[in-house]
Specification:
Layout: H1 2-15, E1 26-32, E2 43-46, E3 49-53, E4 59-63, E5 71-76, E6 83-87, E7 94-99, H2 103-115, H3 119-130, H4 136-149, H5 153-160, H6 170-184
Parallel strand pairs: 1-7
Antiparallel strand pairs: 1-4, 2-3, 2-5, 5-6
Helix pairs in contact: 2-3, 3-4, 4-5, 4-6, 5-6
């Protein structure tokens, strides 16, 4: 029901716009997750400036006068990947749907890739996450685990040294250090 109300609102709003009066038109859309559920609180940015935020259902609406002929919208929320969408022209019916993956989903896919020995894809996914605000200790651990699975024990140990060991990470770091050390000796 919530989506029906949103789309009726958008339809009525767009029907009131003419192509010669695009400034008054809107660009709208929905940001959703892997379960096709809307994500609330996603920042919508143009040129690093926050211009909107998604509502509790993941919907956003932008005033067409804020948008030039060609722009890139950037969608960001802590704990989720950042996505950019190029919008080249505005029409009264500009609807944008963007799927964001949570870091947890991405990490699970990295672990699956590691389990299936897909090392190159694992490395690419870990590298992509290094440019985010995700926990770098865990990313260094995954990088070390990748090196371990590739039988590169020196790089494994080197990557483990980058981890700031605390109570939550101590056991898994020591376990992997032990396994790498056994191979070297």
């Amino acid at each position: 029901m919530k989506n029906i109300v949103f789309y009726v609102f958008i339809f009525v709003l767009m029907a009131s716009c003419s192509t010669s009066d695009i400034e008054r038109c809107v660009v709208s859309g929905m940001i959703y997750d892997n379960n096709n559920e809307g994500i609330s609180g996603v920042q919508v940015c143009i040129d690093g400036k926050n211009i909107a935020e998604t509502d509790v259902y993941g919907h956003f609406i932008l005033d067409g006068s804020m948008i030039d002929n060609e722009i890139t919208l950037v969608f960001h929320k802590k704990g989720y990947e950042e996505k950019s969408v190029a919008v080249s022209s505005i029409s009264p019916s500009s609807l944008i749907y963007v799927k964001l993956r949570s870091y947890e989903e991405i990490m699970n896919s990295v672990l699956c890739l590691l389990e299936s020995d897909e090392f190159l894809k694992s490395q690419e996914a870990i590298s992509d996450l290094m440019n985010t605000d995700y926990d770098h200790n865990y990313l260094h651990y995954l990088q070390a685990l990748l090196f371990y699975k590739m039988n590169d024990n020196d790089h494994c140990l080197s990557e483990l040294e980058k981890i700031e060991v605390d109570e939550s990470s101590r056991n898994w770091v020591l376990s992997l250090q032990s396994k790498c050390g056994e191979r070297i000796n």
